[in-house]
From TrEMBL:
InterPro entries: DEXDc_RapA, Helicase_ATP-bd, Helicase_C-like, P-loop_NTPase, SNF2-like_sf, SNF2/RAD54-like_C, SNF2_N. Residues 47-214 form the Helicase ATP-binding domain. Residues 897-961 form a coiled coil. GO terms for molecular function: ATP binding; helicase activity; hydrolase activity. Keywords: ATP-binding, Coiled coil, Helicase, Hydrolase, Nucleotide-binding. SUPFAM superfamilies: P-loop containing nucleoside triphosphate hydrolases. Residues 379-409 are annotated as: Disordered. This is DEAD/DEAH box helicase. Residues 452-627 form the Helicase C-terminal domain.
Length: 987
C-alpha cells in the first residue's frame, strides 16, 4: 500500500457528513464501547436528522437505553467540535452519567456542584459553566439556583434526563422548571423521558415548548385545539402530526428480537428486634418527635431528622456514632455559654451561627454518604414545614406554600437546663446503642443470604451477591459479621473513599496486573472502583456496598441484590437493583429485603414500595409509568418521614399511610394510556422494518470503516507493528507511550487486556492526521491486481490498461458543513471511469514508480459532473428540512391567530345574549340599560378586531422573519480542493 492509499483512507475516515445519516453517525459509534441495538441508532438518527431542528424528545420505554442514545448524540456533537454541552440530571445520577460517558464513549465531563463551582471561581474562572473541553453535568436544583450563570453560556447542546420533571413548565407555580427552561434558552435540546405524557395533554405542550416554542402556539390556544375539542379522532391525528418531528418512542415489545430480558424474584426476610434494640428505636424516635430540640439546627431540622431515622433503621452501630456526634455538639455549646453574671441563657443566634452548619457535629458524611445528594434535592425547611401537620388530614399533602419555621427559631434564647437535659438523654441513648453488640437484622442476614444464594444457583447464576447499606458503619459491621460466619476471604467493600486496608490491597494488586494497559486511567478514584468491581467479578463472592456502588457501576455478572437498608426513595431502589438487573444480565435477579415485624410504619413503607412501585418483581421492576409519575423520589421520602415524625399510635400511622397511598393512586393513574399509545407509539410493523434497515446499514458502515482504519494502520505502521493474521489485532513496537497490543473489538480488548483500537484512540488519531497532512506530488502507480487476492469484476476489463485518476474534496457549507470525496478517472483511450470504479482501483496494492513529467490532463468536466450530483443531494435534503420548518411555523402562526379569534367569538356570544336580554326587558329604562351594555360590548369587539388584525400582521411578520433566518442558513457555499492526481496502470 502506498501513501496515496493512506491519504484516501484517512480522508474517508474524517469526512464531515449530514447529521441524520448512518454513514456519518458510524464515525462516532465506532468509538463507543457499547453493544448497540438498532432502536438506539434509530433514536440518535432522529435526534440529529435536521440541522434546523431545535431538539427532540427521546421517549423509549424504561430499559431500552436512553443513556446510550444520548451518548451517541453527544459523541457526534463532540466529534463536530460542538463542545459546549450541558447535562441536567437528577442529583443521584450525576456520577453514573459521568462514568458512563467516560467508560463507554471516552467523553470527558465535570460534575459541577456548589463546592466545585466555588473552587473554580477561586481559581479565577468567571463562569465555571463555561467549559470548552468537558461536558458539564449538574442537578436540576443546581441549574435552577445558578440560572444566570447557565444563561451566560452559548450551549451547543443541552441534555435533560428524567425530563418529565419539567412537564408542567407552563404552570405559574412551576418556578424551578421555568427558571431552568429560561436559562438554557435557544440551545439545541435533547429530552430523555419514558413518560412524556402522564396525566394531561398539557404535559406534552410543556415538554415540547421547552424544545421549541414555535411547534405550538400559547397554552390557551393549545387547550382550545387539543384539550377542549369535540372530535377526539381528529384531535389525535392533528396532534400526532405535530409531535412526529419532535418525539420518538420505541416499546420493549418491539425490540425483543434484539434485546432479551430477565425477571426479578423477591425474597422477604422477617426479623424481630431485641428488646434493647426496640427500646433504642422507640426512645430516639420519641426524642425526634419533640417540637423543640436544641441539638438540631432549625434550618436543617427535617433533613437531619430524616437521616437520623435512616441510620436508626440501619443498625445500632450506625446510630451510635451519630448520637456521639450530637453529644459533642451539645458539650461544645455548653462551653460557649455566656459568662456574664446576669445572663442565664444562650442566645439562639449564637448557637445557629456557630453550630448550624457544622456538619461534623451532625451528620457524618463519611458515614451517610448520600447526605450531599439528598440535601441537593431537599427544599429548605421554611418552605416545607407544615407537611407534618397535613399528613394525617384528608387532603393531599402539598409543599408549595411557605410555612412557619419550627418553634425554637422563634425563641429569644435556649435555657441551659433544657440543653443539659437533652445532653443527658443523648448520653443515655448513646450508651444503650454502644451496649448492643448483636443486631437482629444482621443475624437474619445469614440465613437469608444462604437461601438467596441457593435460589440464584438454581437459576444458573454465579455465587455472587451485592449487599447495599446506607451507612458505612453498618458496612463495617456487616463485613465483620460475615467474616465470622464463614465468608472470610470472599468479601470485598465499596464506599465513597475505599480507604480500608482490603480495598487498598485490591487496588495495588489491580495496578500490578494491568500495568501499562489502557484500563488504568490514572485517576485513583476511578481506578480503585474498577479494581473492586474486577475483584468482585473474578475472585470475591460478596460485595458490601454503600450508595457509592449504586452510582456508575455495572454489576450484570451478579444476579443477587440484598437491600440490608431499604431507602424510602423508589428511584434510588430502582437504581440499586438496576446495577445488576440491566442489559447484559443473563439470569433472573433475586432481590432480598428485610422487614421489621415490630414496626407498623416499616411494614407500610415496604407495602408501598413493593405494591405501588412494583420494585422487586416482574421483568422491568418499577414501570416507567409509575416512576415517571414522581417529580422526585425525595418527595416520597419527605412524605414518609412526616408520617414517622408525627404519628404516635397505630391508628394515626394507618390513617397517614392510607392517605399517602390514596395520593399515590391519584398520581399513578392509567387513564392516559390509550391517548399515549395513539399519539406517541408507532405501528409495530413500521418500527420493525425501520430497525432492520438501521441494523443492516450500520453493520455495513461499521465494517467498511473498520477496514479503512485497518488498512491505513497497516500501511502507516509498516515495520513497527505485527498484525495478527486471524483477527483485527496487532502489536505496536513504536513510541513508548503507545506500545502494546491493540484490538479493534472492544469486547476482545477487554478479555485480552489490549487497548481498544478505534478512530478516536491517540495512536489512530496521529496516524490519520499524518496521512492527511502529507504533501503528495503526482506520480505513477502500478496496481498489482493479482496481489489483491480477490476478484473485483468491475476492474477486470481494465487489466493491462492505464490512465489518470484524481482525488478532490468538495466542501459544502450550508445548514451543515458537509464534505465529499470526488474521484474522477479516465483511461488513455478517453473512457471516463465511474467513481465507484476509481474507488475499487484504490483498494488494489500498488507500487509508486516515478513522478509524472509534463502537464496533467484536464479532468474538470468529470469532476464537475460528480460535484453537481453531490450539490443536488444536499439541496434536496435541505429543502425537505426547510419545508418541515415552514409547515411548523405555519401551524404556529395559525394557532396564535385562532387564539385571538376565540376572544372575538366569545364577545359575539355575549352580544347575542345581551340582545336577548334587551328584547325581553320589561321597561324602557331596562331596555336603555341593555342597549348601553350592547354598545359597550360592540365597542370592545371593534377594538379587539383592530388589535386582532394588528396582531395577525405581527405574527405574519415574525413568521416571515424566522423563514428569512432559515433562508440565510440555506445559503450555500462550496469549494473544491485537489488532494492528488496520479497516473495509473493496472496489471
Amino acid at each position: 500500500m502506498t501513501p496515496y492509499h493512506s491519504q484516501y483512507w484517512a480522508h474517508l475516515l474524517t469526512l464531515k457528513g449530514a447529521g441524520g445519516t448512518i454513514e456519518n453517525l458510524t464515525r462516532s459509534i465506532s468509538n463507543a464501547r457499547v453493544d448497540l441495538n438498532p432502536h438506539q441508532i434509530d433514536a440518535a438518527l432522529f435526534a440529529l436528522r435536521s440541522p434546523l431542528s431545535k431538539g427532540a424528545i427521546l421517549a423509549d420505554e424504561v430499559g431500552l437505553g436512553k443513556t446510550i442514545e444520548a451518548g451517541i448524540v453527544l459523541s457526534q456533537r463532540w466529534a463536530e467540535r460542538k463542545r459546549r454541552i450541558l447535562l441536567i440530571v437528577p442529583a443521584t445520577l450525576r456520577k453514573q452519567w459521568q462514568q458512563e460517558l467516560d467508560e463507554k464513549f471516552y467523553l470527558p465531563s465535570l460534575v459541577l456542584d456548589g463546592a466545585m463551582f466555588n473552587r473554580l471561581r477561586k481559581q479565577g474562572e468567571t463562569n465555571p459553566f463555561m467549559q470548552d473541553d468537558k461536558i458539564v453535568i449538574c442537578s436540576y436544583h443546581f441549574i435552577s439556583a445558578k440560572a444566570p450563570s447557565v444563561q451566560g453560556v452559548p450551549w451547543d447542546l443541552v441534555v435533560i434526563d428524567e425530563a418529565h420533571r419539567l412537564r408542567n413548565v407552563f404552570k405559574p407555580q412551576s418556578k424551578m422548571a421555568r427558571r431552568i427552561a429560561d436559562s438554557i434558552g435557544p440551545a439545541h435540546k435533547l429530552l430523555l423521558t419514558a413518560t412524556p405524557l402522564q396525566n394531561s395533554l398539557m404535559e406534552l405542550y410543556g415538554l415540547v415548548s421547552i424544545i421549541d416554542e414555535h411547534v405550538f402556539g400559547d397554552a390557551a390556544s393549545f387547550r382550545d385545539q387539543f384539550v377542549r375539542t369535540g372530535s377526539e379522532a381528529e384531535r389525535n391525528s392533528q396532534l400526532r402530526n405535530r409531535l412526529n418531528p419532535v418525539c420518538i418512542r420505541t416499546l420493549r415489545k418491539q425490540v425483543v428480537e434484539y434485546v432479551s430480558y430477565t425477571k426479578r424474584i423477591p425474597i422477604t426476610q422477617d426479623f424481630t428486634p431485641s428488646d434493647d434494640e426496640h427500646q433504642l428505636y422507640e426512645s430516639v424516635s420519641a426524642f425526634l418527635q419533640r417540637e423543640n430540640l436544641v441539638s438540631l439546627p432549625a434550618s436543617q431540622r427535617h433533613l437531619i431528622t430524616l437521616v437520623l431515622r435512616k441510620l436508626l433503621a440501619s443498625s445500632t452501630f450506625a446510630i451510635a456514632g451519630t448520637l456521639q456526634g450530637l453529644v459533642g455538639r451539645l458539650r461544645a455549646m455548653q462551653k460557649d455559654l455566656p459568662k456574664q453574671q446576669n445572663q442565664t441563657a444562650l442566645v439562639i443566634e449564637a448557637v445557629e451561627e456557630n453550630y448550624a452548619d457544622d456538619d461534623s457535629l451532625l451528620i457524618d458524611e463519611s458515614d451517610f454518604e448520600s447526605i450531599c445528594e439528598l440535601q441537593d434535592e431537599w427544599e429548605p425547611d421554611e418552605e416545607t414545614d407544615g407537611v407534618a401537620e397535613q399528613v394525617t388530614s384528608a387532603e393531599p399533602v402539598t409543599t408549595t406554600q411557605p410555612q412557619k419555621t419550627p418553634a425554637n427559631t422563634e425563641q429569644d434564647y435556649i435555657d441551659p437546663k433544657l440543653l443539659e437535659e437533652e445532653l443527658q438523654e443523648l448520653l443515655g441513648f448513646s450508651k444503650l446503642a454502644s451496649r448492643i453488640t448483636i443486631n437482629a437484622k444482621g443475624e437474619a442476614l445469614i440465613p437469608a443470604l444462604e437461601i438467596a444464594l441457593r435460589r440464584a444457583a438454581e437459576l444458573g447464576a454465579e455465587r455472587k451477591a451485592v449487599i447495599f447499606t446506607e451507612s458505612r458503619r453498618t458496612q463495617t459491621y456487616l463485613f465483620d459479621l460475615l467474616s465470622k460466619k464463614g465468608y472470610e476471604g470472599e468479601l470485598v467493600l465499596m464506599n465513597g473513599s475505599n480507604a480500608d486496608p482490603l480495598s487498598k490491597q485490591v487496588y495495588e494488586d489491580w495496578l500490578k496486573r494491568h500495568a501499562g494497559q489502557e484500563c488504568v486511567s490514572g485517576s485513583k478514584a476511578v481506578d480503585i472502583k474498577a479494581a473492586i468491581v474486577e475483584e468482585f467479578k473474578d475472585r470475591a463472592s460478596i460485595l458490601i456496598a454503600t450508595e457509592a456502588a449504586a452510582e456508575g457501576v455495572n454489576l450484570q455478572f451478579c444476579s443477587l441484590v440484598v437491600n440490608f437498608d431499604l431507602p424510602w426513595n423508589p428511584q434510588r431502589i430502582e437504581q440499586r437493583i438496576g446495577r445488576c438487573h440491566r442489559y447484559g444480565q443473563k439470569h433472573d435477579v433475586v432481590v432480598v429485603n428485610f422487614l421489621n415485624r415490630r414496626n407498623q410504619a416499616d411494614e407500610r413503607v415496604f407495602e408501598i414500595l413493593s405494591e405501588k412501585f412494583t420494585l422487586f418483581d416482574g421483568v422491568f421492576g418499577a414501570s416507567d409509568q409509575v416512576l415517571g409519575a414522581l417529580e422526585s423520589g425525595v418527595d416520597i421520602e419527605r412524605r414518609i418521614a412526616a408520617v414517622y415524625q408525627t404519628c404516635r399510635n397505630p391508628a394515626q400511622i394507618a390513617a397517614a399511610f392510607d392517605q399517602l397511598q390514596s395520593d399515590l393512586d391519584a398520581q399513578i393513574q392509567v387513564r392516559m394510556d390509550d391517548t399515549r399509545q395513539v399519539l406517541l407509539e408507532n405501528f409495530d410493523e413500521e418500527v420493525a422494518a425501520r430497525l432492520k434497515v438501521h441494523r443492516d446499514k450500520t453493520l455495513e458502515s461499521l465494517g467498511e470503516r473498520e477496514r479503512w482504519l485497518l488498512n491505513l494502520t497497516r500501511s502507516e505502521l509498516n515495520g513497527d507493528a505485527t498484525f495478527d493474521p486471524n483477527e483485527p489485532r496487532f502489536k505496536y513496537q513504536g513510541k513508548v507511550a503507545h506500545s502494546g497490543y491493540y484490538h479493534f473489538d472492544w469486547r476482545k480488548a477487554n478479555e485480552n487486556g489490549d487497548a481498544f483500537y478505534r478512530q478516536g484512540h491517540p495512536l489512530a488519531t496521529a496516524i490519520i492526521e499524518s496521512a492527511i497532512q502529507r504533501k503528495l506530488d503526482s506520480a505513477t502507480l502500478n496496481f498489482n491486481y493479482s496481489a489483491y487476492g480477490s476478484v473485483v469484476s468491475v476492474l477486470e476489463p481494465l487489466l493491462g490498461q492505464s490512465g489518470w485518476l484524481e482525488l478532490s474534496k468538495l466542501t459544502i457549507n450550508s445548514l451543515d458543513v458537509e464534505e465529499f470525496l470526488l474521484l474522477t478517472g479516465v483511461t488513455d483511450d478517453g473512457t471516463v471511469l465511474d467513481a465507484d470504479v476509481c474507488g475499487k482501483l484504490l483498494s488494489i496494492p500498488a507500487t509508486v514508480e516515478d513522478s509524472v513529467a509534463g502537464s496533467l490532463p484536464d479532468l474538470s468536466a468529470s469532476r464537475d459532473t460528480e460535484m453537481t450530483k453531490r450539490v443536488r443531494e444536499v439541496e434536496q435534503r435541505n429543502m425537505k428540512h426547510f419545508d418541515e420548518e415552514v409547515l411548523k411555523l405555519d401551524h404556529w402562526s395559525d394557532d396564535l391567530k385562532q387564539g385571538l379569534e376565540r376572544e372575538i367569538k366569545e364577545l359575539d356570544k355575549e352580544i347575542r345574549e345581551a340582545r336577548k336580554v334587551a328584547a325581553l326587558a320589561a321597561s324602557l329604562a331596562e331596555k336603555l340599560e341593555a342597549q348601553k351594555q350592547i354598545k359597550s360590548l360592540e365597542s370592545n369587539r371593534k377594538e379587539k378586531r383592530k388589535r386582532l388584525y394588528e396582531a395577525q400582521d405581527e405574527i405574519d411578520n415574525r413568521r416571515d422573519e424566522l423563514i428569512g433566518q432559515i433562508e440565510v442558513q440555506l445559503g450555500q457555499q462550496k469549494s473544491v480542493s485537489n488532494l492528488f492526481t496520479i497516473r495509473w496502470a493496472l496489471n
